[in-house]
Amino acid sequence: MNLPVSLKCENLEKRFLSKLIFREVNFTLNNGSSIAVTGRNGSGKSTLLKVIANLIKQNKGKIIFTVSGKDITEEKRFEHIGMIAPYINLYDELTAFENLEFFYELKCEDKGTKHKLEYIDALLEKINLYNRRNDLVKNFSSGMKQRLKLGFAIINEPLLLLMDEPRTNLDREGIDLVYSVAEAQKSRGILIVATNESEDTRLCAEILNVESHK
How many CA atoms lie within 13 A of 94 on its CB side? Predict the structure, then answer.
């Protein structure tokens, strides 16, 4: 059974020093909702997703994130969020399995450790990296690294999934995998996709152009 989830952004504004990135960003999303964030390179798409993920702070406005009707604090928001983005760092000196194991122990405490090995192996199968699970990530191609980042994003079965340019470095098979995950997310919670690709925007029911919020 999916938990009721809601994300409300009210009058968000972000500046870097004197430069305005966006202002008066408002939207509300609930279970099954999806929104594509569009705009030219440097327009603030990634910045908005980082604000929602609590990686950086907005200058004005507020974000209200609730699960089962209860407000989730900024410090606890990460427990319910998954994120794939080009700037997510991997541990190159660890294997694919070890990378996912680290994130599992960080974000999946409620799942316990009893079925950890089976859970991670199943996730590696899903992202088509099972046969390379014991290889060091430093030897992976850029596309393989992107698929591993997708594994990071969904390892905690997030109620809110943030996808920032999710098709980066992926071939058609990888893009189809991302789209499959995105469609599944809409049946579980909320999906936000930052992209300039028209094909990506069709994943979402709404579109927000950040350039209109300057």
Answer: 12
Query: Residue 180: how many CB atoms within 10 A of its CB?
Result: 11
Per-residue pLDDT reduced to its tens digit, 105-153: 888 866 666 689 999 999 999 999 999 999 999 999 999 999 999 999 9
> What domains, with CATH codes, occur in the chain?
5-213 (3.40.50.300)
Q: Is-above-0.85 flag for pTM?
A: yes
Query: Can you tell me which residue has the tokens 């279970």?
Result: 31
Which tokens in the block code for residue 148?
Answer: 């591993």
Euclidean distance between the first and the last CA atom of the chain, given in angstroms as a whole number: 40
How far, CA to CA in Å, does 164 sit from each of 119, 146, 212? 25, 11, 19
Edge to edge, what strands does the sheet with 206-209 contain?
81-84, 160-164, 190-194, 34-38, 206-209
